[in-house]
């Protein structure tokens, strides 16, 4: 049985333990009185703020705005990355020309592009989505590239023996090798984008999780800032786990 | 005697082999296209001109030095802390059951979402910047140190059990050396993270000399040329530092090559 009680307990037990340890440490720090209430507030208060923010729809609106940007960026940057990776992974000549530039560019901290994009596109959706799409492009491109290149030679030999036609070769050899790589790249791209969207919204935006936090910081609403950080971390962690589990379920052969 | 191919073709060939053809071609096209289009981006010749102008009084050099020093401070603190926590977590079974899930969760923490919180706690000046850099560095270093110690081959642990090694000598003789390749990979990733956090801290926290400040000044004065110079310097310094660290590591530990390939993705 997949979801036996024992299995669930073994999976969730340590996580619950860690959460409890973390929350009690936080609470003890608050009780100790060494931090003023303007700087550190107890977990229960953060939970109450989270509830309030959820109830009046603030959290939902801002979260959806951030999520929409990340989704658009992943769709645009990710598909460009897949196309780029497929071309460069299958053609050595192409890679010899583009490779060094690609490797140099992917080491640039993308956050530095923010001000340039703002000058070019103005503050708003366009600059955030462009910045995130750039950040999503590189991990997906790199992963696709390596997946396309990494078809094991002995499989190629088997394919040669069976004289598979190009369609079957694509279906049985190429796709199974590339798809898990793309999934892994997409997971990394999601992590980058989710981290970057908050930062991009700090530059200036009319909505979004980062905007909510930076506005609350100026108002010294520490509870909203902490609630925002908790939500951003929780969503990052949960989505990564879901993407990982989804990839494992859909492509069990490419388990990483 | 064979006639040598003409100079231009040889030049083209060596450029194409070293992968410089595309970047140089793009720069040439950029310079040429600049005449035709309405000017938003400055052309490469302008950029060189402005760079020389900016660096005339040692301003750019001062910014560059400030950024690098800032990064190194945060990197040193974060790498030390991260390595100690990672090794301790992996070496002690009790800590591992308690904090193991937290370790894998920490990996996904969007570090920039902490910027507003950090500024409330530590202000906007140098201290907050270095804390942000150290935090960013510590994540990959800790994770790699942790994985390195977890990956000690079982036969070695069995030998250690047989010899009744005490925890300290087990750590020094077995776990630390085994974790070393992973740790060095972590240092490399940590340096990339540190550089990113340095730039972010200079963009979001108080203005002080630094390459991020060059970019911000460019944004305020509507000077795309200054922003592009800032970005190029940030990219160039990042690539140079990564190459230097990789070279140093290879020199110290030739065996590191084995795990060199694994970190490409993360």
TrEMBL record, chain A:
Keywords: Cell membrane, Membrane, Transmembrane, Transmembrane helix, Transport. Its main location: membrane. Pfam families: BPD_transp_1 (PF00528). It is found in: Cell membrane. Residues 59-243 form the ABC transmembrane type-1 domain. It is a multi-pass membrane protein. InterPro entries: MetI-like, MetI-like_sf. This is ABC transporter permease. It comes from Acetobacter suratthaniensis.
From TrEMBL, chain B:
CDD domains: TM_PBP2. It holds the Pfam family BPD_transp_1. It comes from the Bacteria. The keyword Disulfide bond does not apply. The chain crosses the membrane at residues 12-33, 68-92, 104-124, 130-147, 193-215, 227-253. Residues 64-250 form the ABC transmembrane type-1 domain. Belongs to the binding-protein-dependent transport system permease family. Keywords: Cell membrane, Membrane, Transmembrane, Transmembrane helix, Transport. This is ABC transporter permease subunit. It is a multi-pass membrane protein. The keyword Transmembrane applies. It comes from Acetobacter suratthaniensis. It is found in: Cell membrane. InterPro entries: MetI-like (IPR000515), MetI-like_sf (IPR035906).
């Amino acid at each position: 049985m997949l979801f036996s009680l024992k299995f669930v307990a073994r999976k969730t037990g340590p996580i619950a333990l860690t959460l409890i340890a973390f929350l009690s440490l936080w609470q003890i720090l608050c009780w100790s009185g060494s931090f003023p209430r303007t700087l550190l507030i107890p977990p229960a208060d953060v939970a109450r703020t989270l509830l309030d923010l959820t109830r009046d729809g603030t959290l939902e609106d801002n979260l959806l705005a951030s999520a929409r940007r990340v989704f658009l960026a992943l769709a645009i940057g990710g598909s460009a990355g897949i196309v780029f990776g497929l071309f460069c992974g299958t053609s050595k000549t192409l890679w010899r020309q583009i490779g060094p530039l690609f490797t140099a560019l992917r080491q640039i901290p993308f956050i530095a592009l923010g001000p340039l994009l703002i000058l070019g596109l103005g503050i708003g959706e366009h600059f955030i989505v462009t910045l995130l799409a750039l950040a999503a492009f590189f991990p997906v491109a790199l992963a696709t590239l390596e997946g396309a290149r990494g078809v094991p030679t002995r499989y190629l030999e088997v394919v040669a023996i069976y004289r598979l036609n190009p369609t079957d070769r694509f279906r049985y050899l190429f796709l199974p090798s590339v798809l898990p790589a793309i999934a892994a790249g997409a997971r990394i791209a999601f992590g980058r984008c989710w981290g970057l969207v908050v930062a991009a919204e700090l530059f200036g935006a009319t909505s979004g999780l980062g905007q909510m936090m930076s506005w609350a910081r100026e108002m010294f609403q520490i509870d909203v800032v902490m609630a925002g950080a908790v939500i951003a971390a929780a969503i990052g962690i949960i989505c990564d786990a879901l993407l990982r589990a989804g990839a494992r379920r859909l492509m069990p052969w490419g388990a990483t | 005697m064979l006639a040598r191919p003409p100079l231009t073709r040889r030049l083209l060939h060596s450029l194409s082999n070293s992968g410089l053809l595309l970047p140089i071609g793009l720069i040439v096209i950029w310079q040429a296209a600049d005449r035709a289009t309405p000017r938003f981006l400055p052309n490469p010749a302008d950029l060189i001109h402005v760079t020389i102008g900016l660096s005339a009084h040692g301003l750019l050099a001062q910014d560059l030095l400030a950024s690098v020093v800032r990064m190194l401070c945060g990197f040193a603190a974060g790498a030390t802390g991260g390595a100690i926590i990672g090794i301790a977590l992996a070496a002690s079974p009790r800590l591992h059951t308690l904090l193991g899930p937290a370790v894998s969760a920490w990996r996904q923490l969007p570090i920039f979402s902490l910027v507003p919180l950090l500024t409330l706690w530590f202000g906007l000046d140098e201290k907050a910047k270095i804390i942000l850099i150290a935090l960013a560095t510590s994540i990959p270093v800790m994770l790699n140190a942790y994985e390195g110690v977890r990956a000690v081959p079982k036969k070695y642990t069995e030998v250690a059990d047989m010899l009744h090694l005490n925890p300290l000598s087990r750590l020094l003789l077995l776990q630390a050396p085994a974790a070393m390749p992973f740790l060095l990979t972590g240092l490399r990733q940590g340096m990339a993270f540190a550089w990113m956090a340095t730039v972010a801290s200079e963009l979001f926290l108080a203005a002080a000399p630094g390459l991020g400040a060059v970019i911000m000044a460019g944004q305020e004065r509507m000077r795309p040329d200054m922003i592009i110079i800032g970005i190029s310097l940030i990219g160039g310094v990042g690539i140079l530092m990564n190459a230097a660290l990789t070279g140093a590591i290879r020199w110290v530990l030739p065996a590191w090559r084995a795990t060199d390939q694994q970190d490409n993705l993360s």
